[in-house]
Amino acid sequence: MNYTEIVNYIEEIPKFTVKNPPEHTKEMLRRLGNPENHMKVIHVAGTNGKGSTCAYLASMLSAGGKKTGLFTSPHLVKINDRFRINGEIMSDEDFVISFLKVKEVIDQAAVDGYAHPSYFETLFLMGVDYYYRKGVEYLVLETGLGGGKDPTNCVASPLACIITSISIDHVQYLGDTIPAIAGEKAGIIKPGVPVIYDGHVEDAAKVIKARAEEMGSASYALKTEQYTLKTQSRDGIVFEFEGTELQIPYIAEYQMMNASLAYFTMKTLQEEHGICDEKLKEGIKNVTWPGRMETILPGVIVDGAHNADGVAQFVKTVHQFRQNNRVVLLFSAVSDKEYDKMIKLICEDIKPHAVVTTQITGERQVTAEVLAGLFKEYGAENVISVPEVKGALDKALELQQDGMVFCVGSLYLIGEIKASLQK
Length: 423
Fold this sequence. Notes:
Helices cover 43% and strands 17% of the residues.
């Protein structure tokens, strides 16, 4: 099989398999030779901020001279984007090598009666094979959906577990209350492994702390008083974390929390990795993480906020720019997200000058017309629906005038926009 055939095969996996229990992933890893046991893993779960926190961690480790793998999801443009080593995306050649290795294991296991791994499970298996083959020392590992039942949770002894902010998301899989979702995320905590977590929401923090105590694990809660904003501009943010000045290249205040959580973790593990404070600061400053308040064209910003809590943070940032700028919104969402709440928040708090809605292809599609109807229902004016993403972007740019365009609502939307621009 060549690269294109393999990608097509992987994209078809959801149609002929189901989500498997952790025991299934463990068996596949065993048949692969347990490559995950040869790397120092930092495991990250949470509702919002997982990807950014992982990016900060990987950037600090790389700045400190460590060969560092980064496994995240979903991809924005190309499936290889999920796999990075010291910032470099996995090559097509390595993608083929790791898939064929995993496919051999899958076929052998099928003879013994094992089900085919799920889409995410297959990519996780490919990832650990790839990082092991390349001699990665540290692996920053983002969970897919949830925590305790996630395929990534089959890593037995990570260096540390991180739990980012918790909010209502994926209610059909994780529960419909903050404590229930926090309980699922806290499933990544391992006996004796330190856990660093966002302590801002008391209902979630209680659950995480209790789980850590149950597992005999040291726990460290990140609190608001640990970090303070100093300056905020279009170039980014300067803030202090417990007296240390840090700079990040992002304009959104919530990124202080993600950066602080990552820095807090690296300080907690400093005896293990031995990276000096200056290199940690350098890594934080030079982080790159696509799709998070990222400027892709002059005055055009894409943000991966895709649930009510993420959009609430997005709204806070856009407020600062709306005072002096015309704001045009390009929006889409998928069906298993609370897009009604997201749209209500945007209309009440931002009151954009114009809105363009579009739709993501696939089974989770919500039509541009349905989204446009909700914007109008909540009081937005000048709302236009354009089903095709490229056409929607063109329309938003036409409406921009001398103002700003913000694209939000789905990581898949950001991916399609980036792919369109690349073409």
